[in-house]
Amino acid sequence: MRPRVVGTRDHAPGAKQEPAGKLSSRYAKAIAHDTTARFTQPTAPRQPRKPFKLFSAQTLVHYSLHFAFPAVLALVFFPLMWQTAYLIMVATMLIDLDHLLAKPIFEPRRCSIGYHPLHSFYVLPVYVLLLLLPATQIVAVGILFHLLTDTVDCLWSFRHCHECYLNSRIYALRNWLRKPLSREGID
From CA 134, how far away is CA 26, in angstroms rounded? Predict the structure, then answer.
C-alpha cells in the first residue's frame, strides 16, 4: 500500500479541521472526492540524471577513435614515418584544453562541436587550410579526425537526449543552413 501524500494545509498550525462529510464555503464548488483526491495522489518521482558510464559502448568507441584509429591513419597516409605521424595525431588531442574554459569542465551530455573555441565552426576552415601545407598536413589530419570523432560522439549522445540536440550548436547551424535553402526563401 502506498503512503498517503499530504499537503501543507493538513499540517498547518491552527488549521481548522472540517468534519467528515461537511464542506466549508471555500469548497462549495468542488465535490468531496475532488478535494481529497488532490492530496492523496502520489507525486511522480523526479527522474534522476543518468550517471556517466565509464565503460559504455559510446565511451569505448569514442576513445578508440581518439587513440587507436590514428595509428591506422598514420599507416595509410604516412607509411614511411607512421610512428611520428601517430604521435603527432595523438598530440592533437591538446585542442581539448579548451574544455578548461567551460563550466563545468566536463559535462557528458554537452556536445563539444561548436561549443568550445578550438572546436568551433569558425576555426574549421583554418584546419582545412592546414591540409594544403605539407609541413602541417599531419596536424591537420589529426585535428580534423579529432573533430570527426567528437561529432560521432555528439550524434550518439543526441540519440539518447533530444533536448541536448535542440540545445546544441550543430542544431543551430543546421537551421541556419536550411533557412536559405527552404522553399520559403525561394518563393
Answer: 82
DSSP 52-92: PPTT-HHHHHHHHHHHTHHHHHHHHH-GGGHHHHHHHHHHG
CA atoms within 13 A on the CB side of 107: 15
Cα–Cα dist 153/156, whole Å: 5
Whole-structure pTM value: 0.66
Q: Are 114 and 65 in contact (CB under 8 A)?
A: no
Which of these, 37, 138, 145, 152, lies nearest to 83 by C-alpha position? 138
SS3 27: helix
Please name the residue that has the C-alpha cell 596536424: 139
Question: How far is the C-alpha of 120 from the C-alpha of 173, rounded, in Å?
Answer: 11
Helices (H) and strands (E) in the chain, counts: 9, 0
pLDDT tens, 109-163? 889 999 999 999 999 999 999 999 999 999 999 999 999 999 999 999 898 889 9
Tell me the one-letter amino acid at 74.
A
